[in-house]
Amino acid sequence: MTVLHFLSCVGITYAPIYIAYKSTRIGEFKSFSPVLFGAAGYFVTQLAKMMLLATFLPSFDTSIYSVYQEVIRLFNGVVDLFAIFVLLHLSHAPKDVRALGIGLGWALADALPRVYSLWGAMPLEFDSMHLINSFESNVATLHSVAICYVVASLTRKQKKSGNNSNNSGSNMLTDFLSILRTPSMALLSLIIYLTVPLVHSYLNLVVGANAFVLLAVNIAMVLANSLLIVSGPLKSELASSSSPTMARQ
Questions:
Q1: pLDDT digit string (tens) for 1-40?
Q2: CB neighbours of 215 closer than 8 A, spacing ≥ 6?
Q3: Neighbours of 146 (CB within 10 A)
Q4: Burial of 25 (0-12, 13-18, 19+ CB in 10 A)
Q5: Beta strands of 21-162 (E only): which ranges?
Q6: Which span out of 120-124, 219-223, 230-234 was modeled with the highest average pLDDT?
Q7: 237 vs 148: CA distance, rounded Å
Q8: Are 203 and 186 in contact, with CB atoms under 8 Å apart?
């Protein structure tokens, strides 16, 4: 039974990513390079954040709630968004698979370290925390892919407005900051994306909510944001990708 519990947790965690890959245009085109590109970008981003935090910021206790730590979490989210922006800007994958491929790669890289924690599903007694962690991985996958579409939509609009810059880091940072200053439904989605970990931390450390409540709130926020994205940025992004001319950009 312990082996079945472990396999079920692994399946819940990684099967949705595989299904999304095989059932979409990435699988049809056998285009795995954007997935690898997104995964590599995730690991580089996390390494850069760890080095930055270890060098310039003091250590802090994640078991207590403080405004300082929440600012750090917010900063981490902004860095992730900038990394996704850079990956979309540098990727040479076809436009109609670029955002999805990078989003799946980002989600896969985020889920890979969970293998170690899932190994804890092998003890003699059943622990629901492993199933909860697996479902949280699914929620994170959905949010990562959706946010990649949002950033891709904002990037496309920026290029249409004639603000397309070269690949230098300073220009890309300027372009990224400019899209954050543009009021839109997509910007609201990015704000919700940055808010999710802050709400999770508050409920966990201040309210003392249990794991099931945290998962329910996480699912509710991500689904609400995903519906917002589907009705706005995703619709426009898919519409632009349907054009053969645009798809080759």
A1: 577 778 888 899 999 999 998 888 787 766 788 999 999 9
A2: 132, 135, 136, 139
A3: 22
A4: middle
A5: none
A6: 219-223
A7: 11
A8: no
What's the number of CA atoms in the CB half-sphere (13 Å) around residue 196?
27
How far apart are alpha carbons 88 and 14 in whole angstroms?
Answer: 23
Nearest of 156, 190, 170 to residue 88 by alpha carbon: 156
- Residue 56: alpha-carbon gap to chain centroid: 25
pLDDT at 165: 54
Does the predicted model carry a pTM greater than 0.90? no
- Rounded CA gap, 192 and 225, in Å? 7
**Cβ atoms of residues 98 and 152 within 8 Å:** yes
pLDDT digits (tens, 9 = 90+) for 80-116: 999 999 999 898 888 878 889 999 999 999 999 888 7
> DSSP state, 125?
S
> Residues 22, 128, 197, CA angle at the centre, nearest 5°?
70
The secondary structure of the chain in percent helix, strand, coil, rounded to multiples of 5, reads 80, 0, 20
Tokens of 198: 């802050």
Token pair of 183, please?
């009021």
Please compute, for residue 243, the number of CA atoms within 13 A of its CA located in the half-sphere on the CB side. Answer: 7
Cα dihedral 19, 38, 121, 212 sign = negative
Residue 245 pLDDT exceeds 50: no
Find the distance separating the first CA and the last CA of the chain, reported in whole Å.
Answer: 50
pLDDT of residue 170: 67
Distance CA 214, CA 199 (A): 9
